Amino acid sequence: GITFSHPWLTTFYSAGKIVAGKEQAYSIASLRDSFLAFYTAENASDSERLRITSNGNVGIGVTDPASPLEIFSTSSQLKISYDASNYADISVADDGHLELATTGGSNSDITLDSAGNILIEPGRYIDFQLSGGGVKFEFDLNADPILDIKSDADSGDYLRFQVNAAGASTISTVDNSDAAAHLTLDVDGDITLDPH
User: Fold this and answer.
1) Spatial separation of the C-alpha atoms in residues 57 and 110, rounded to whole Å
2) How far apart are CA 65 and CA 54, in angstroms?
3) How many Cβ atoms sit within 10 Å of the Cβ of residue 51?
4) Do residues 80 and 90 lie in contact, with contact meaning Cβ atoms separated by under 8 Å?
5) In this structure, what DSSP letter does residue 166 have?
6) Per residue in 112-123, pLDDT tens?
7) Cα 157 from chain centroid?
8) Dihedral angle sign, alpha carbons of residues 187, 167, 118, 136
9) Burial 156-176 (b: 16+ CB within 10 A, else e)
10) Residue 16 CB: number of other CB atoms within 10 A?
């Protein structure tokens, strides 16, 4: 291997190393597989940080990567940054759920659980847009969930579905230049029509 060191006064201290190791017995050609391991020094102790296996898989924090890139950590596993202030963290939780947290979020904003459900943190919006166009469908996940279906001609014109805390369902048609008309279905099955 290759060992690196740094001096302090008259003594040289370990600063990391690169080690070529064997994965099998090396007794015959078909068993002569090797890996490269990269170490860094932390608190005067060398620790393996990255490994490239004989088949080219790369492991960060793991010595037996099972895919072209495997990252092991109990906290954030991958941070993708535009700059120091704008980034997204991608991680896998201890229950196997995939989590995506965007800039400034203390909790995951989007979670894909092991059953395939997509969970959105409360207080967020889900927007569906046409390419280059405005929002056409919007889910508002604030206090009372709302679904808006918007007009092509005017985003201020839309059809709204809402369920409030009491369980009543309201359907609203909203005209950007006029008042809204409402149809409410409450938990008892009563329908109320608001005059337009």
Assistant:
1) 28
2) 11
3) 21
4) yes
5) T
6) 888 888 887 766
7) 33
8) positive
9) ebbebebeeeeebebebebee
10) 17
Would you state the structure tokens that stand for residue 42, as one six-digit string?
Answer: 């932390």
Q: Report residue 147 as tokens.
A: 């679904």
Residue in the structure block whose two tokens are 């941070």 = 79
Whole-angstrom Cα distance, residue 86 to residue 82? Answer: 5
Chain centroid, CA 98 distance in Å = 6
pLDDT of residue 123: 66
pTM: 0.65
Q: Specify whether the backbone of 17 is left (phi greater than 0), alpha (psi in -120 to 50) or beta.
A: beta
Q: Position of tokens 């960060």?
A: 60
Chain segment 67-95, per-residue pLDDT in tens: 999 999 988 889 988 888 888 888 888 88
Cα 87 to Cα 56: distance, rounded to the nearest angstrom: 29
Beta-carbon contacts of 29 under 8 Å, excluding residues fewer than 6 positions away, are none
Structure tokens at 131: 């390419």
Which helix (H) or strand (E) covers residue 137, if one does?
strand 135-140
User: Do residues 129 and 135 touch, judged by C-beta distance below 8 A?
Assistant: yes
